[in-house]
Amino acid sequence: MYKNYFLPLLLSASILLSSCEKDDNVPQTDYSITSTSHFELLDQHQNGWIKQGRYQLSEDPTEEFEYYENGYIKSARVYASYPQHHLYMEVSRSEDNKPLWSKYYHPDGSLWLETEYKNGLPSVKKVYSEEGTAIHTYIDGELSLVEFTAADDSSTAITSYDKAAGKRRVTITKNGESILDKNYPYQEQVGAGIYANSHMPVANPFGSSETSYNKLNQSFSQSPTWEHDADPISFMFPYRLFDEIYNPGDYFATKFAVSTELYQSVIEQYPVTERGVLMSGGKYEDGIEHFQDHYEVRDSLAKVYNENPELYQLKYGDEYIEKIGYGKLFFIIGALRNLPTDANVADNIKSIARKKMNAMMGGNSITTEEQEQLDKVWFEVKFFSTLKSHRNGIVLNNNDNYNALIEEFQNSESSILQLKYAAFEHMFTRN
């Protein structure tokens, strides 16, 4: 009987050719970045990543930015839509992700706050208001001096800080004459006053104030979730919360950048996000110190205030610390940049990024194939906390990094999270 010995070979060859044809027909994953209806790609680096880009809505820019070739932000301009479309924030950063300078603007276009940095830490902040200008000077990132000069040059207020001696000195002059020169504890106590518009801390009219402490022992934690913007305000408290309704709208609450260095650090590192960021964290509230407002003291101060409100406000400001909140907090941000335009590819990378961040926090791992896909874009996970060494974030690479930072955070002491203010005027007018 005739046997076709070549048939198996022909079948094998046929299957091989068929397989090759199928591989040729399999579409290649598209990692390219192109312009869309809401995003304009202005320039690219040689590796295809974004060099310059702009997001826009109804032809108005919402974000204009430039990336370094390594994926870090070089500069960014961020716009708000309320009360009208306007530039409200711009930043400049170095190639190793250190801040160089930042500026914040009022809706009318006037400059409100500008910060100069040295070695990645704030050096000088200038706050401009109708009342005058307050210059905040820092040494190694620690506030050392605040100088306020009235718009008409009629008065000055200077608060200098001496951490080693545990005191701060408040000196106020009017028309060239000294009207107050007094030392207070280094850390502002309940009752301490401030010029709210310029964040200028001044004197404490209450002297040694009686307080009570409300123990909370409250904690909160959250697993990684996707957020539209890298706004950490849900994980933290504004350091100075003034006596007004807090409504930041649909953009960063930039007024917190004056005194909340951690908040400023984050929003200036992530002024622009691509399809959201991963955020996780936790906070522990130890308790709140309350100001004991005795009517005898209130009535006495009200009399002084009514005799000369302008002089009173010059010495003690328009608001005072009513409560001080203690505790500690941390949060983790996983950010993606240079995501492909193809939505399916981008969503797949986002899924891998979330798995990677969970692995860093939980000790698991992702596959080699998944890591290769993630390597097509810029992805970084950073750990932030109330510890000064964590203020600009620590890059996480693995679970050991995460565990070490969590242990350092847990072993740290509680610190002041928030100074909550009340208006002197309300104190003097209530029954």
Number of domains: 1
Strand order of the largest sheet: 1-2-3-4-5-6-7-8-9-10-11-12-13
What is the terminal-to-terminal distance? 117 Å
Instruction: Estimate what percentage of residues fall within beta strands.
Output: 35-45%
Task: Give average pLDDT, whole number.
Answer: 92
The total strand number stands at: 22
Low-pLDDT stretches are: 1-22
Question: In CATH terms, what is the architecture?
Answer: Alpha-Beta Complex
In oligomeric terms, what are we looking at?
single chain
Q: What is the H/E order? A: HEEEEEEEEEEEEEEEEEHEHHEHHEEHEH
Q: Assign an overall shape.
A: globular
Q: Major β-sheet, in short?
A: 13 strands, antiparallel
How much helical structure, as a percent, in the residues? 10-25%
Q: Helix/strand/pairing class, anyone?
A: alpha+beta
Task: Give the number of helices.
Answer: 8
- CATH C-level category: Alpha Beta
CATH fold group = Outer Surface Protein A, domain 3
| Radius of gyration (Å) | 28 Å
